[in-house]
Specification:
Largest sheet: 5 strands, parallel
Distance between the termini: 13 Å
Number of domains: 1
CATH class: Alpha Beta
Number of helices: 5
Number of strands: 5
CATH architecture: 3-Layer(aba) Sandwich
CATH topology: Rossmann fold
Strand order of the largest sheet: 2-1-3-4-5
Amino acid sequence: MITIRKILIVDDSTSARFFIKGCIPKDKGYEFFEASDGAKGVDAYKNFRPDVTFMDLTMPVMTGFEAIEVIKAFDPHAAIIVLTADIQTKTIERVTALGISTVLKKPPVKATVEEALLKIQGIQG
């Protein structure tokens, strides 16, 4: 079972990062880190070693797909939750091939974000 203490949110939209944070329970004492593109997300991952990362797919500089590849090469056990508006079958297949099992549709709903965190912790699903 994984204990979540540090959460990284990687999204080029400031409002999306704010919205995602708003879906995460406030009473757990999580420490948050943010990045505005995939390259900054990779750097933040390496520097802060979060327990879970929320990753957008469509971003400038480095896409979420590229960032996931780099993070997974650095840490094969990285817990990454993809958040995207693009839930086409080919997109889901592509992130699954990268080792991602949790994909949430944007904008996220508080209940699905909480379920995803529980799944990462091994508490359900």
